[in-house]
Amino acid sequence: QKEVEQNSGPLSVPEGAIASLNCTYSDRVSQSFFWYRQYSGKSPELIMSIYSNGDKEDGRFTAQLNKASQYVSLLIRDSQPSDSATYLCALSSSGTYKYIFGTGTRLKVLA
Amino acid sequence: DGGITQSPKYLFRKEGQNVTLSCEQNLNHDAMYWYRQDPGQGLRLIYYSQIVNDFQKGDIAEGYSVSREKKESFPLTVTSAQKNPTAFYLCASSQGLAREQYFGPGTRLTVT
User: Fold this and answer.
1) B77 vs B75: CA distance, rounded Å
2) Do residue B100 and residue A101 have CB atoms under 8 angstroms apart?
3) Which chain A residue shows the shortest CA-CA distance from B94?
4) How many CB pairs under 8 A join A and B?
């Protein structure tokens, strides 16, 4: 089993809809979770970090963490064509400098 | 503006040549990282450094070398021993353990 799993997509949503991206992980001691957006040919850009169970909102983005079920999700409200990108989930464990990345979910927002 | 710079953006080399990729940050971050990204794969850790003059191998360190003589700089050398060096190389930094990691723009290396 991969340490971080994401559906590769593409996930297609119409403009203005909510896009829901999911990530499951296998390491129960993971403490820090991150979502990155990566446009084609570019480097990953940090969108959000989340460290405790529950929801964290930042503008149109909401990260949700459920450590008991070992998943983290990213909701994008009012999706725009400019949100079309690959979204990477990453995690790190307390006491380590190592980060584990998923392979990403490709999101397509249709105008 | 604070950030991470990588140079060059594109690099072309012949097989058998060593090549050094530059990474500089002015975020005052202690930790720096090098990743490799191949199509359809996640980021794979090559090397990381927690402090100056110290660095650790990541998951795919064979054929690569690094140095950390200054806090701001973490250059990566791709040696001729690296079997498949063509890839997108990303440098990143973070303030501390398990904190947010920020990436530079990347260097796309092509070896023929």
Assistant:
1) 7
2) no
3) A97
4) 59
Per-residue pLDDT of chain B (112 residues; tens, 9 = 90+): 679 999 999 999 999 999 999 999 999 999 999 999 998 788 999 999 999 999 999 999 999 999 999 999 999 999 988 889 999 999 999 998 788 999 999 999 999 9
What is the DSSP-derived secondary structure letter of residue A81?
Answer: G
**A24 contact B CB<8A:** no
**Which of B57, B87, B68, B83 lies closest to B23 in space, CA to CA?**
B68
- Give the 3-state DSSP-derived string for B2-15, with helices as H, strands as E and coil as C: CCEEEECCEEEECC
At A69 the three-state DSSP class reads: coil
Where are the extended beta strands (E) located within B1-112? 4-7, 10-13, 19-25, 31-37, 44-49, 56-57, 64-66, 76-78, 87-94, 101-103, 107-111
Nearest residue of chain A to residue B50 (CA atoms)? A97
